[in-house]
Each structure stands twice: as structure tokens, then as C-alpha cells.
Write a structure and sequence with these properties.
The protein has 421 residues and is mainly α. The chain contains 14 helices and no strands. The longest helix has 36 residues. The protein is globular and about 70 Å long. It starts with 22 loop residues before the first helix and ends with a helix.
Length: 421
């Protein structure tokens, strides 16, 4: 058994990298880095393979639909597992499934026996596993660094994810374009990164479960939903995040079609444009990490969410590949800031016994992203890809405006009530 988890180490001074001073968090961060490298490579490879096998936007949508449906089912269970079981065990089991799916796809593609249903099966397996991995990783970060550095830890976790998005799509696209390696070899390389993640996670310290419950999983899920419903600010934050991610983030599902069908370019350019969002995300990560635990965080989140949606709308208007590249870089910065701060604020509003379930409900927005991909893909086939992307961005921006209006109304109501008393 691993040694018990050490107490969080207080930061010596405000720093963009203060959480990395905690040794156990460094282990978790490296495990996430390798895992994200693997997942981001597969994210691109899944889209390329789906397009190559079918050449239809709706097939891209179906792939992400099944990924999202699997997450929709598994994520609430992942939140319960995170609260009821040692988080290290949850991380290892879910990462193991991600590894098996990557290696399995690499083998069938390398042998030339791949079929579309196999791709869908791998998407379901990985979507189900990520429903457990995501809540456990974020909640474990809170245990390791403490509440005072939670925002910094989550922002650095997002930095590792977005940093891999700079390199992973380009690497995957480049490998897929080399005849002797191809998509199968690229899948196997992503599987190797996943194995490195497993080895890192084995070094994590033991941490007991936060929730001692004799109820069934469904009862614990219902308790988590009630917990959120009874807290208006948390409920409002969660619903807004669901809409913003479900519509706005879906632009990534259609990048292969945008690059190959609209701009007439190859697989390597799909990887290149996917990296653009990561460049923007990495650029904002360091200044964001310094402010993620400050009083400015809610306002930064609000502006980031709005400009994220506006950037997606602008992507739908882009007429050239390089203009789209520049727009996506801006979108990446907005995405990173919004996701980091919305997750931080949600966990800051939650007690220890509910953090896993709260994070799982926040992560359901990515299940919504996968589910919305199919109808959006069908819509793109009817009205065109660019108008569909414009609609996606407009919905995300409007959701943030509505969130701001509701927050402002509640603040004014509270101020008025206080003045009357």
C-alpha cells in the first residue's frame, strides 16, 4: 500500500506554479500530462478515421454522440465512485480502459481490418472511462493541494491538457500521414503514452474515501443532484457550463470536415489547426494561474465564456485556413480560462463529501457536447458547416449573457434586501 497522503503544503509566495511545489500533485500532474497526450492524439485520429471510412459529417457526429452518451451514463457513477472509493484506484482503473481501447484500435488498423463499428466501440469505452477519470483527477487535486491553491492546481491541470493539444494533434496527424506508420501506428504511439500515465499514477499516495455511505449508487447520485439544486449559484453555474460546452466546444468535432472539405487540405493540416487552440490556451495559462484563486476569478470567467462563444461564431465566418487558425488560437484562450475557472468556482462552493459528484455533474457538459454533435452534424449537411458553427458560437455567447443578467439580478436583490434591513 502507498504511504498516506501528506498534508497540503502552503505556498511560499503567490506563484503561477505554486501547486507544483506539492510532490504528490506533481505526480498527478505528470500522470495527467501523459494521459492527455494519449487522449488528444486519439481525439484527432478518431475524427480522421471516421471521415476516411465514411466521408460524412454525420458519421463524425455519431462517433462523438456515442462518446458523449457513454460519458453521460458513466460520469454520475464516476462522481459517486470518486466520493466513495480511494481516488487512486478510480484513476488507475479508468486509465487502464483508456489504454486498452487505444492499443486495440492501433492493432486492428495496423492489420487493415478496421471497421466503423470498431471505432464506435472504442469511443464508447473511452467515453465511459473518462466519466470516472475526470471527476477523480480534479477532486484528487483538491485533496493534494488544499482549497487555497485549488484554482492554481486546476489551471495547471488545464495547462497540461492544453499543452498536449499543441503537440499531440500535430504528432498524430504527422504520424498518420507517414505511409509506414499510418493511423494504426499513431494509435499505438498514443497507447504508449497511456501506459506511461499508468506508471505515474501508481506512484500516487493512498487517500481514504471522503464519503462513508451505505446507500446505493443511484441514491448517492440523487443526493448530489439535490445538493446542487439547493444552491442557486452553483446550479446556475453548472447549467450555463453545460450549454456553453455542449454547443460552443462542438467546433472541434467538425475540424476534419472544415479543413478537408471546406479548405481542401489534408490530415496534417487537421492536426495543425487543432494545435492552434492549444497555443492560445497555453498563452493565457500562466497569467490565469496567478489569478485563479483571487476575487477577480468570477469576472474573468464571465468574459472568457462570452469571448469563447464569439470566437466560435467568428470561426464560422472565416474564409481561409490561416484566418481560421488565428481565430481558433483566440478561442483556445477563452476555452481554457472558462473551463478552469468554472470548475474552480464549482468545487469552491462544494463540501468535501460532494466534490466528486459536483465535478461529475460539471463534466456532464462534455457528455452534452458529444450528444449534440450528431444533430449538429445533420444540421451541417442541410444548411452548411459554416452557418452551423456560427449558430454554435451564438448559443454559447447568449448563454453567458443570460448568466451575467441572472447573477446581476441576484446581486442587486441581495443588496436591496441588505439595505432594507
Amino acid at each position: 500500500m502507498s504511504d498516506p497522503i501528506p498534508p497540503p503544503v502552503a505556498p511560499l509566495a503567490p506563484s503561477a506554479f505554486s501547486s507544483l511545489r506539492v510532490p504528490a500533485y506533481r505526480v498527478l500532474w505528470w500522470g495527467g500530462l501523459f494521459s492527455f497526450m494519449s487522449v488528444q492524439m486519439q481525439f484527432l485520429l478518431r475524427g480522421i478515421l471516421a471521415w476516411n471510412l465514411t466521408e460524412r459529417e454525420s458519421a463524425l457526429g455519431l462517433t462523438y454522440l456515442l462518446f458523449g452518451m457513454a460519458m453521460l451514463v458513466s460520469t454520475p457513477l464516476g462522481g459517486v465512485a470518486t466520493d466513495r472509493f480511494p481516488k487512486k484506484r478510480v484513476l488507475l482503473l479508468s486509465q487502464g480502459v483508456i489504454t486498452i481501447a487505444a492499443v486495440g484500435m492501433g492493432i486492428v488498423v495496423s492489420l487493415g481490418v478496421e471497421q466503423f463499428w470498431m471505432l464506435l466501440l472504442a469511443a464508447v469505452a473511452q467515453g465511459g472511462a473518462f466519466g470516472f477519470y475526470g471527476p477523480a483527477r480534479v477532486a484528487f487535486a483538491s485533496d493534494l493541494v488544499g482549497r487555497d491553491q485549488l484554482g492554481n492546481a486546476i489551471t495547471l491541470a488545464m495547462l497540461s491538457m492544453n499543452g498536449t493539444r499543441v503537440f499531440a494533434p500535430s504528432l498524430a496527424g504527422a504520424l498518420a500521414g507517414i505511409a509506414v506508420i499510418g493511423i494504426g501506428g499513431a494509435y499505438l504511439v498514443s497507447g504508449a503514452f497511456s501506459v506511461f500515465s499508468l506508471l505515474a499514477l501508481l506512484r500516487l499516495p493512498h487517500h481514504p474515501a471522503a464519503l462513508k455511505s451505505t446507500r446505493g449508487p443511484l441514491a448517492d447520485i440523487a443526493d448530489g443532484v439535490r445538493y446542487v439544486k439547493q444552491r442557486p449559484k452553483l446550479r446556475r453555474l453548472m447549467l450555463t457550463s453545460f450549454v456553453v460546452i455542449m454547443f460552443g466546444f462542438n467546433y472541434v468535432a467538425f475540424l476534419p470536415a472544415l479543413v478537408k472539405d471546406v479548405f481542401g487540405m489534408g490530415d496534417g493540416h487537421v492536426g495543425l489547426i487543432s494545435s492552434a487552440s492549444s497555443l492560445g490556451a497555453v498563452a493565457v495559462s500562466v497569467p490565469l494561474a496567478k489569478r485563479a484563486d483571487s476575487a477577480q476569478a468570477p469576472r474573468i470567467m464571465l468574459f472568457a465564456g462570452f469571448f469563447f462563444g464569439a470566437g466560435v461564431f467568428a470561426l464560422g465566418l472565416s474564409s481561409t485556413f490561416w484566418l481560421a487558425f488565428a481565430v481558433i488560437a483566440v478561442v483556445g484562450g477563452g476555452t481554457n480560462a472558462y473551463q478552469s475557472l468554472s470548475n474552480t468556482l464549482a468545487l469552491a462552493m462544494s463540501d468535501d463529501a460532494h466534490q466528486g459528484r459536483v465535478q461529475s455533474l460539471m463534466q456532464l457538459s462534455f457528455a452534452g457536447f458529444g450528444i449534440a454533435a450528431l444533430p449538429l452534424g445533420a444540421l451541417a449537411e442541410v444548411i452548411g458547416l459554416r452557418p452551423t458553427i456560427q449558430i454554435m458560437g451564438a448559443v454559447a455567447s447568449v448563454a453567458m449573457v443570460v448568466f451575467w443578467l441572472l447573477e446581476r439580478a441576484e446581486s442587486m436583490s441581495s443588496t436591496g434586501a441588505a439595505s432594507r434591513t
